[in-house]
Amino acid sequence: MTTSDEFSAVASSESIEKLKENMSRVEELSKRLADVMSRKVPHNPALDGPNQELYARAATAYWTEAMQNPAKILEQQIGYWSKSVLNFAEAQKALAGQLDSTDDGGPADRRFSNPLWESSPYFNFVKQQYITNADAIRKAVQDAGELDGKDKQRLTYFADQIIEMMSPTNFLPTNPDALEKAVATEGQSLIDGLENLVTDLEANNGELVVRLADESAFELGGNIATTPGDVVYRNRMMELIQYKPATETVHETPIVLFPPWINKFYILDLKAQNSMIKWVTEQGYTLFVVSWVNADASHADVGMEDYMQEGILTAIETVKEICKVKQVNAVGYCIAGTTLSLTLSLLKQRGDTSVKSATFFTTLTDFGDQGEFTPFLQNDFVDGIEAQVEEDGLLRSWVIARTMSFLRSKDLIYGPAVKSYMMGETPPAFDLLYWNGDGANLPGRMAVQYLRGLCQNNEFVREGFELMGHKLHIRDVDVPLMSITCETDHIARWKDCYRGVQQMGSRSKSFIVSESGHIAGIVNPPSKKKYGHYTNPDLKGDSEAWMEGAEYHQGSWWPRWNDWLKKRSGKQVPAREAGDSGYPSLMPAPGSYVRVKASR
């Protein structure tokens, strides 16, 4: 044996001992894990998935098909068996050194990028059998008869979740990246991963919410949400922030912007380079932004009408008083845009012309097609939410975050979980993911009103949504409007937004489809020159006809919106400082409400 061989043997022995030492630390972390799980607050099981009736109907449909058309079922089974045997045969060939390439030319899956998935007989067999199993499950669901459209859509969704969950990359013995790192780090990666898991569970009272960003890397008002401004008004629902002018003169008509209260407003002010808030002030506008309260138990009975009265209407009146004007230009993002639409209907019925124009960012008003949210908007799931909020008074942030994440589970749940819990990696210092994890609780009453009256019953479009002594209807929205939607938005699909805009009563409507999704399509500064947008002034046809006739434009839609807004913003006046004698500055932006974390 050479000196080099002796050294390798000693090093290998030392590594194994270090590995054993690291593994002994698992006991301590296991105790913490057991402790946090023993203190986990139970929740309604309906929040975790559909009731058993869906699966029972699916099973009945499957066996009915088997009885009526046994040849078809047998053909599927024989196909599955044949593929499984071929996978095993390929593994045998590989062991004999005759492994053929398994690349079928399909789209690459980042989960299987490690060369061992191709070169190792073991990992290659695991991968191929997983793909075979996934195809068999999808085929069985696709062929399930006697299910209505919504049941088939829900069954497809939950089957896909099972497929994603059972990926071999989600388990240590079948993840070569995790195994290689565990050996290379003498087990330290597994210790770090278990520490990350326990920490995440402790932070959420036993609920597993995968941390997506390094929270220690960001400070509100420090390196994010830094555009200067002042809180000039506060009530139990919101803080109203007036941003400092960036120009010597401004347009007479101010802007008041209502972000969604499911997340925090600073998505529009992450950093100077992509801050819409900063950019708007630089275009010569007086800008006010609402920062919504993060609901707690005291807000249990708060409803949609409170967001309208103490939020939108109060903000509009306050802005009018501070700026000494009769009208404002209003902007609503996502659910705040939906609520702005309800408010515009109310103002129309009251004969109030306080809103000169309205801009909607990714706003749904017609919920006739529930899209990817269909699995979560059926009675069994909403019944579970209603029962839980009756107990808690709140729809807690983790429920909303988990629901949103499962729509993109590969990228927002399993991928980050593998990196954090099996690879022991620290989450990245990514501002967008930090914001994504900084959610908000929703008042129980408001959540049920929204889910039942709007999402499920679509009352704003149908017979009218009863609120504040009025029956609010989409046709009453008659101010000049612009709607900005996003091409790949899976939360507020642009075709659904388009359908709602078509039904609004406004004579002047502008509709834009931005490239990218719910966030990146909106936070798309001109300086980045990243995503383009589509326009078409003809809104008479359906969404397919609109897009077919649309013109594509390079770059951000922000300058186009500015050109539209300038025509509705009046003459130039001296730039306004924050507040006035009746509304003194309460504190600098970003205020205090935005700093409150959601209770678990």
What does this protein structure show overall?
- This protein is globular.
- With 600 residues, it is α/β, with parallel strands linked by helices.
- The chain has an 11-stranded mixed sheet, with helices on both faces. It has a two-stranded antiparallel ribbon with strand order 3-16.
- The chain has helices spanning 3-24, 26-38, 52-68, 70-95, 116-119, 121-142, 149-165, 176-184, 188-203, 276-282, 304-323, 335-350, 379-392, 397-406, 409-422, 431-436, 444-456, 494-503, 543-548, 558-566; strands spanning 229-234, 238-243, 249-251, 255-258, 287-292, 328-333, 355-361, 394-395, 442-443, 465-467, 470-472, 481-486, 509-514, 533-535, 551-553, 572-574, 587-588.
- The chain has 20 helices and 17 strands.
- It folds into 2 domains: 48-170, no CATH class; 229-595, Alpha/Beta hydrolase fold, catalytic domain (Rossmann fold).
Q: Which structural class should the secondary elements be placed in?
A: alpha/beta
Based on CA atoms alone, the radius of gyration comes out at 28 Å
User: Which strand-content bin applies to the residues?
Assistant: 5-15%
Strand order of the largest sheet: 15-14-13-12-7-6-4-5-2-1-17
Keywords: Acyltransferase, Coiled coil, Cytoplasm, Transferase
GO cellular component, one term: cytoplasm
Coiled coil: 9-36
Pfam family, one: PhaC_N
